[in-house]
Design a protein that fits this description.
It is an enzyme of class 2 (transferase). This is Sensor histidine kinase. It is a single chain. With about 375 residues, this protein is an alpha+beta fold. Helices cover about 65% and strands about 10% of the residues. The chain has helices spanning about 5-10, 15-40, 45-75, 80-105, 115-125, 130-175, 180-195, 195-215, 225-245, 270-280, 325-335, 360-370, and strands at about 225, 245-255, 260, 285-295, 300-305, 345, 350-360. The strands form two sheets. It has a five-stranded mixed beta sheet with strand order 2-4-5-7-6. Strands 1-3 form a two-stranded antiparallel ribbon. Helix 4 (about 80-105) packs antiparallel against helix 6 and helix 7 (about 180-195) packs across helix 9.
């Protein structure tokens, strides 16, 4: 056997090879049992075993052809497939019927059109219907395998889509730190170097911690709330170097929630928007309040400020929010369902952004990771 043929055989999916072998075994058992019963009850001649063997060998070859034929038909519409398989069943019957005529009548001297026609018509009775069954069973096996392969392909496509989605989220996550924040921080460090080198070193350390946290974060992994809060603290301290007393930050966190796991950097865009659109444009600054509380089986998160609110040039109303806000909203919905999306409220006294996380799902997540 030459190399191209061997390569073609190797490329055939294993499931099709197994299906072919099982079909051959099934029909071998059928021929064996049927022939034995015929030999025992009707025809005690041993040649009927040889006839059965010849029919079985041809059937095994035809099964391969049926698979390829069904695979070719599968690309067309269903009505064309039905018509094609009806024709295929007739051709299969004629091939097997003609071989049966040759083995049973032709070798005995019954030669001619009339004898062949009489034999074929005789096979149309009950005892010849197994030829149709052979075709139907083979095609049925093909479609069953094709159905499950289709489901498997859909799952694979979903997995690939989820992987691409996670890669996109990771990319967005790592680019979520606003370039303006980095630019302003570097300017602040440059200013502090001349006035307070110790303070400059602290800011550099905090900035380093922020970027290390961002680079170590992955969209498909969870982090403890306490680590997310440390990240937010570093972010706020750096912003306070720039804004001074104009920026105040208050945390109201339920201590029982500190070990709860949440998506990384899920709070940073909310705090950043409060700083950028609420506090920074306000002449006398303001206060940002971060609240985390547990209500039964839900955990409530809120970032609220007393900045410009609806008076701001750009209001976070869910449609005009930045990339970071949209990314946060999509991540929450993707992980916890549509009910966990951002809820944004704005008025003349400030604005707030909140969301809920189902606590039961987090518990199940932790249990599955522990197993």
């Amino acid at each position: 056997m030459n190399l191209p043929v061997l390569k073609s055989i190797e490329e055939i999916p294993r499931v099709w090879k197994k299906a072919y072998l099982l079909l051959c075994l099934w029909f071998a058992a059928n021929y064996g049992v049927g022939t034995f019963i015929e030999w025992k009850l009707e025809n005690p001649n041993t040649y009927i075993f040889w006839n059965a063997l010849y029919l079985f060998e041809v059937l095994c070859i035809l099964i391969i052809g049926i698979f390829f034929y069904a695979n070719w038909l599968f690309r067309f519409r269903i009505y064309f497939q039905v018509a094609g398989h009806a024709a295929g069943a007739m051709i299969h019957f004629m091939i097997m019927g003609t071989l049966s005529y040759y083995l049973e009548d032709y070798v005995e001297g019954y030669i001619g059109w009339d004898f062949w026609k009489a034999h074929i018509i005789g096979l149309l009775k009950w005892e010849g219907l197994h030829f149709h069954d052979q075709y139907i069973i083979t095609v049925g096996v093909y479609y069953v395998i094709g159905y499950f392969q289709g489901l498997q392909k859909q799952e694979q496509e979903k997995s690939e889509l989820a992987l691409k989605n996670r890669e996109m989220q990771i990319s967005l996550l790592k680019s979520q730190i606003n370039p303006h924040f980095l630019f302003n921080t570097l300017n602040s460090i440059n200013t502090l170097i001349g006035s307070s080198k110790e303070q400059a070193r602290k800011v550099i350390t905090q900035l380093s911690d922020i970027f290390r946290y961002a680079l170590d974060s992955h969209g498909d992994q969870m982090v403890k709330l306490i680590h997310e809060l440390d990240f937010i603290d570093n972010y706020i301290r750096i912003q306070q170097v720039r804004f001074g007393d104009r920026l105040k930050f208050v945390k109201q966190v339920d201590f029982s929630c500190l070990n709860v796991e949440i998506p990384p950097m899920i709070l940073q865009p909310l705090v950043e928007n409060s700083v950028k659109y609420g506090i920074a444009p306000k002449e006398d600054g303001g206060t940002i309040i971060l609240t985390v509380k547990r209500f039964n089986n839900m955990i409530f998160f809120e970032v609220k400020d007393d900045g410009l609110g609806s008076k701001a040039k750009k209001v976070m109303d869910g449609s005009s929010s930045g990339v970071g806000m949209k990314n946060t909203d999509q991540r929450l919905k993707s992980i916890f369902g549509p009910g966990s999306g951002l809820r944004i409220h704005s008025n003349e006294w400030g604005y707030s952004v909140s969301f809920f996380i189902p606590y039961e799902e987090i518990v199940e997540e932790l249990k599955s990771k522990a197993m």
